[in-house]
Amino acid sequence: MAQPFAILSDRGVVGVSGADAEKLLQGLITNDVPAQSGHATYAGLLTPQGKIQFDFFVLRTDDGFLIDVARDKAADLAKRLTIYRLRSKADIADRSDALAVRAYWDDVDPRAADGVHFYRDPRLPQMRWRAISPAEDTPVTTGQSAGEQAYHAHRIALGVPEGGRDYAFGDTFPHEALFDQLHGVSFTKGCYVGQEIVSRMQHRGTARKRIVPVTGDGDLPASGTDVTAGDVVIGTLGSTAGRDGLALVRLDRAAEFNAKGVSLTAGSVPIALRKPAFATFELEPARDAAAQPS
């Protein structure tokens, strides 16, 4: 049976190689770099204030690392890594014109092919596989293209957010974007940019805002629409697929209005929040956690 896949045209690739490539990345990103070739880590590069500048996958290859990142952020990421490189022996290049990213969301039997790198999506088992390959080639699989919209509908249904679609770069903490829930941050590794803020939020449980799945009574409006309770804005709608979507919401305010019997809406569409199956947090946070500043 053919497996569905999508060519993700909005994804780019940055290559990092050289003797100090691992040391450079390990000292910068929110997660440990993968230890074995063919394995990938989900991670981010933060501002000193602990907010996400870039989210990406870091794939180890026999020659170094390939970073699967938003296409419109690839050049900026390569530039940022070059600034941090200083005297490190590392070669950094935006390879987005030469390499393509594909996603597979069913059981696939990846087969070795020259220049094709298959890897498990490290966020959730249900996200299955991704592949980086030469842009002009088709990976060796029995897949059939289902289109990017089908891929995004799949991740939305699972509650998996994506930077630039479900939250704004430079304005969102990793906990708010579910990095702590989707294996995007290590709380045991050494220092990295923004670590103190992330560790403090983890220790104090101060993530009042979270991205959560929402279901509308009808088709949801466009991304960026305010989520409101009465006349009060408590969040922002992100990706949508028909009646399903993701939204960055103040969970403490949502719980407060829910207790008062006030419904939530996105535009004119009534919505309900849903806790992702993988989540360890509650939609109604504890009072002491909700009362603390983030």
Structure report:
There is one protein chain. The protein has helices at 21-26, 71-85, 148-158, 195-204, 251-259, 287-291; strands at 4-7, 11-17, 40-46, 52-61, 64-70, 91-94, 99-104, 117-120, 129-134, 144-145, 209-216, 226-229, 232-241, 244-250, 264-266, 269-273. It is of the alpha+beta class and 294 residues long. The chain is built from six helices and 16 strands. The chain has two domains: 4-108 and 115-158, Gyrase A, domain 2 (2-Layer Sandwich), CATH 3.30.1360.120; 206-291, Beta Barrel (Elongation Factor Tu (Ef-tu), domain 3), CATH 2.40.30. The strands form three sheets. A six-stranded antiparallel β-barrel has the order 11-14-13-12-15-16. The protein is globular.
Could you give a quick summary of the protein structure above?
With 294 residues, the protein is of the alpha+beta class.
SSE layout:
Elements: E1 4-7, E2 11-17, H1 21-26, E3 40-46, E4 52-61, E5 64-70, H2 71-85, E6 91-94, E7 99-104, E8 117-120, E9 129-134, E10 144-145, H3 148-158, H4 195-204, E11 209-216, E12 226-229, E13 232-241, E14 244-250, H5 251-259, E15 264-266, E16 269-273, H6 287-291
Parallel strand pairs: 1-10
Antiparallel strand pairs: 1-7, 2-5, 2-6, 3-4, 4-5, 7-9, 8-9, 11-14, 11-16, 12-13, 12-15, 13-14, 15-16
Short descriptors:
32% strand; 2 domains; 16 strands; 294 residues; Elongation Factor Tu (Ef-tu), domain 3
How many β-strand stretches? 16
The chain-level structural class is: alpha+beta
CATH superfamily of the largest domain: Probable tRNA modification gtpase trme, domain 1
For the record, what CATH class of the largest domain applies?
Alpha Beta
Alpha carbon gyration radius? 19 Å
The CATH architecture category of the largest domain equals 2-Layer Sandwich
Order of helices and strands: EEHEEEHEEEEEHHEEEEHEEH
CATH topology assignment of the largest domain: Gyrase A, domain 2
Tell me the fraction of residues in β-strands, as a range.
Answer: 25-35%
Distance between the termini: 48 Å
User: Strand arrangement, largest sheet?
Assistant: 11-14-13-12-15-16
Helix content: 10-25%
pLDDT under 50 segments (min length 5)? 288-294
Q: Mean pLDDT across all residues, rounded?
A: 91
The total domain count is 2
Count the DSSP helices: 6
Q: What is the global morphology?
A: globular
Sheet bearing the most strands, described? 6 strands, antiparallel, barrel
